[in-house]
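G., the chain you wanted modeled:
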Amino acid sequence: MTSLRVAQRRISPRRSKRHGTKLGAVLVTAVLLTAVVTACTGTTSVPTGSANGASGISTVPSTASSPANSGGSGGSGPASSAPPASRPSPGCSTNSPAKVVAGEATEEAVLSGGVQRMVLRKLPRAATLGTPLPLVIDLHGYIEGAKFHSAMTALDAAADRHGFVNLTPQGTSSSAYWNAGPTTDGPDDLRFLTDLVDATGASLCIDLARVYATGLSNGAMMASLAACRLGDVFAAVSMVAGLMFPLECAPNRVVPFVAFHGTEDSLLSYDQDGRSLESSGLPFTPETKHNFDAVNLQSARTGFGQWGELLGCAAVQEKDVTPSVRHAVRTGCRDGATIEFYTVAGGGHTWPGSEFSAPVSPVLGVTTREIDANDLMWAFFSRYRR
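Predicted structure as C-alpha cells:
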C-alpha cells in the first residue's frame, strides 16, 4: 500500500528563497565542519555530507543546453521531434482532490513497505491544474540527507526554470543512505522509488512518460541501479560523482543516461579500479558497510565503458566543450538510446555548477563553474519519453 500526504511543514516561496541565502549559509557551514571532522577522524554525529559539493572559481558561463547535439531516442523517442502523447497520471483526473499551488515547496510523507518516508517536494512556478508535468527525483549522497542535498544542487530553482516537479527524498537510517547494491536484507529502495512515483502521480498531475532520476554519490549509485531495474518507470537518468555498473544488470528497457565526474574525486574514483571506500575516512555503520560491500565499486570510466558494451552502443565520440570539461557520447545503443559522460578535469566529488559548495572545497575538491549539471541534465532528459 502506498500513500502520500502533505506534512505539517509547508515552505512558502518566500521562505524557500531565504532557505537558499541565510539558512543556506548556516547549512554549508555545518557541512564544512562535519566534513572536516569526518576527513580527519572518520567520525561524525551530524547527517551531513560525504557527498556534498566543493568549490572552484571560473568566469566561464554555464550552458543551458547540451554542447553536443547527440540526439537519441531511448524508449519512445526524443521529445523534440513529433513526441508521443503524454501519459497523464491519475492525479490529472477532474475527480482528483489534488490542488496545485504554483511554486509551492512542501515536506511530504510517503508510506512504502510499511515504512513512512520523507520527501521534499517542489512544484514549478508555471504549474497549472490538470496539465501533466514532468517529474524529477533527486537522490542525496551518503550521510548528506535531503535538505542539505536540496541546497547543494539547487534543482528547485531548475524546476522553476524548466517546469518540472522536483522531489528530493530521504534515505533510510541515521546515516541516510540508499541500498544501491542492493542487498536483499536492506531497505527496498527500488520499491520506494516506484511507490514515490505512484503516490506523486495520484496526488498531482504528472506525465508518467516523463519521469526522471538523478543523484549524487550514493544517490548516483541508486540512479544507476534504477537504470538497470526500473526501465518501466524512468525515461532517463543522470549520475553525478557516482556512476556505477550494477552487478547482474539486465534492463528490460534501455534507459538513456548522462553522467558527470571529476578527475580528482577522492571518494569515488574517476579512473582507478579497486579503490576501497574504507580508505576514504567516511564513517560506516555495520548496516551501511554491509550495503556498500555489495556495490560494484569500479571507476566511473570503467563503468561508462561497461554500460556501453552491455547496451551495444557505438564507439565513443569525444570533444572538449570548455577548457576543463570533455564530453563523451555513445550513440546507437539498443532501443536507439544514447549515453553521455562529462569529464571535469580537476573536479572533485562535487555537483558541477553548485554555488552552495565553496566552503567544503578543502575536503571534497573543486566544483567547476564552467558547466551547470542541472541545465545539461534537463536538456538531456527533455529528449526522452517512455
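The CA atoms of residues 272 and 377 lie 25 Å apart.

Shout if anything looks off.
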